[in-house]
TrEMBL record:
Subunit structure: Monomer.
InterPro entries, sorted: Phosphoglycerate_kinase (IPR001576), Phosphoglycerate_kinase_CS (IPR015911), Phosphoglycerate_kinase_N (IPR015824), Phosphoglycerate_kinase_sf (IPR036043)
Species name: Hibiscus syriacus
A GO CC annotation given for this chain: membrane
Protein name stated in the entry: Phosphoglycerate kinase
Compositionally skewed regions (Low complexity) per UniProt: 18-32
Length: 489
């Protein structure tokens, strides 16, 4: 935060202020991206492409320049980071590299379908389009692979067939659908593909060998193509045959534009944000967000907490929480996280009031009470209006915001007010030039529900992958890709 401000850790038992003498600009920058300890110098264009800063793909050249310049400032701080994250991009391949070549593209087309097999949200299909169109325009022969759901063997309701009409419409070309993902019939379809043609393979998870990452299965998939493009960020945290295994048999193996953009924002912008930088973390359990909270405490200036996890923090401070969700074995952790925030000068805000209910149901009786006055037999299901105002006031001071997790049980309209208020506030701030990053999962559903998804700076297509990246973990589907060429200057 700015040097003139006072950094405060908000507690419901007492308010403790600690003034920091250092400015936000001098705050230690993040640890996710670091240059190799050899301190080699890189050309700017090489570095930005390697990290996924393709102006044609991300559409935010200022962000790219800002982050790449920050990345270059990390010389000598360790071996992890750029060495593992600077990956070759599909944008680095020339037309000659692609024309007439069979390209195995792993996309994440795992979209929700209703009981009539109609697509209810095509976000992930639309997100895959830029990479596929780029390959079409460069005369490649596209072999498209994806999973859908969690099938146990061949399961008709998880077939990718319902995706073909929408995918064909978005691409402006008729997509051919295979009935399998390996085998002689698939090989015949691949052989007949024209330049610019698209073949959609059947659900790769119909084979148990996919998730087991069995080399022979990966080899069969790879045998269909000349090179590999991974654009499936949503599965990049898993070492599966179609995401990691095929890279052992296909060269080059590069990142698609969507994967690039995810790295731009979730690694780049979060590692070196324009400050003040706020993180909003919600969800039902502290245990599922421990890594994210601890990682963000190293980077952010303001941390807002909501969702069911707040009641564990309340109880850790000695407050009565009624029948609200509490993780009894995480009380000490909650206390330590509050202490860590204070020690690091991070403003950690817990809701001061909550919406409580007499049962967990959409038609429950409800009322608003101070967070310190939850009666027995009642449970907290949303943040209250005073908390929304406090959160909004804090967000008004920021320049970068990342949000992961709802503020309440937003599936029930009565308890969706807090989550929807955050979505609307971020939309407002986006319009004022604040970088807003929606970090996957339920937060994405929330901004879609409110109708403000299109104004956010970035909406992640990955749930688990987003969380792991925010925690600073390496993603197997990214690590396996070819390293970007490092050019000495």
């Amino acid at each position: 935060m700015a040097s003139a401000t006072t950094s405060t850790t908000f507690s419901l038992l007492k308010t403790t202020a600690s003034t920091t003498s250092s400015s936000s600009a001098s705050r230690p920058s993040a640890s996710l991206i670091r240059l190799p300890s050899t301190r080699r110098h890189l050309k700017s264009s090489t570095l930005t492409h390697g990290l996924g800063f393709s102006s044609a793909a991300s559409g935010d050249s200022l962000l790219s320049l800002h982050v790449s310049s920050k990345v270059r400032s990390f010389k000598g701080k360790g071996s992890r980071g750029v060495v593992s994250m600077a990956k070759k991009s599909v944008g680095d391949l020339s037309a000659a590299d692609l024309k007439g070549k069979k390209v195995f593209v792993r996309a994440d087309l795992n979209v929700p379908l209703d009981d009539n097999q109609n697509i209810t949200d095509d976000t992930r299909i639309r997100a895959a389009v830029p990479t596929i169109k780029h390959l079409i325009q460069n005369g490649a022969k596209i072999i498209l692979s994806s999973h859908l759901g969690r099938p146990k063997g061949v399961t008709p309701k998880f077939s990718l067939a319902p995706l073909v009409p929408r995918l064909s419409e978005l691409l402006g070309t008729q997509v051919v659908k295979a009935d399998d993902c390996i085998g002689p019939e698939v090989e015949k379809l691949v052989a007949s593909l024209p330049e610019g043609g698209v073949l959609l393979l059947e659900n790769v998870r119909f084979y148990k060998e996919e998730e087991k990452n069995e080399p022979e299965f990966a080899k069969k998939l790879a045998s269909l193509a000349d090179l590999f493009v991974n654009d499936a960020f949503g599965t990049a945290h898993r070492a599966h045959a179609s995401t990691e295994g095929v890279t052992k048999f296909l060269k080059p193996s590069v990142a698609g534009f969507l994967l690039q953009k995810e790295l731009d924002y979730l690694v780049g912008a979060v590692s070196s944000p324009k400050r003040p930088f706020a993180a909003i973390v919600g969800g039902s359990k502290v245990s599922s967000k421990i890594g994210v909270i601890e990682s963000l405490l190293e980077k952010c200036d303001i941390l807002l907490l909501g969702g069911g996890m707040i009641f564990t923090f309340y109880k850790a401070q000695g407050l009565s929480v009624g029948s609200s969700l509490v993780e009894e074995d995480k009380l000490d952790l909650a206390t330590s996280l509050l202490a860590k925030a204070k020690a690091k000068g991070v403003s950690l805000l817990l809701p001061t009031d909550v919406v409580i209910a007499d049962k967990f149901a959409p038609d429950a009786n409800s009322k608003i009470v101070p967070a310190s006055a939850i009666p027995d037999g009642w449970m907290g299901l949303d943040v209250g209006p005073d908390s929304i105002k406090t959160f909004n006031d804090a967000l008004d001071t920021t320049q970068t915001i990342i949000w992961n997790g709802p503020m309440g049980v937003f599936e029930f309209d009565k308890f969706a007010v807090g989550t929807e208020a955050i979505a609307k506030k971020l939309a407002e701030l986006s319009g004022k030039g604040v970088t807003t990053i929606i970090g996957g999962g339920d937060s994405v559903a929330a901004v879609e529900k409110v109708g403000v998804a299109n104004v956010m700076s970035h909406i992640s297509t990955g749930g688990g992958a987003s969380l792991e990246l925010l925690e600073g973990k390496e993603l197997p589907g990214v690590i396996a890709l070819d390293e970007a060429t490092l050019v000495a200057v």
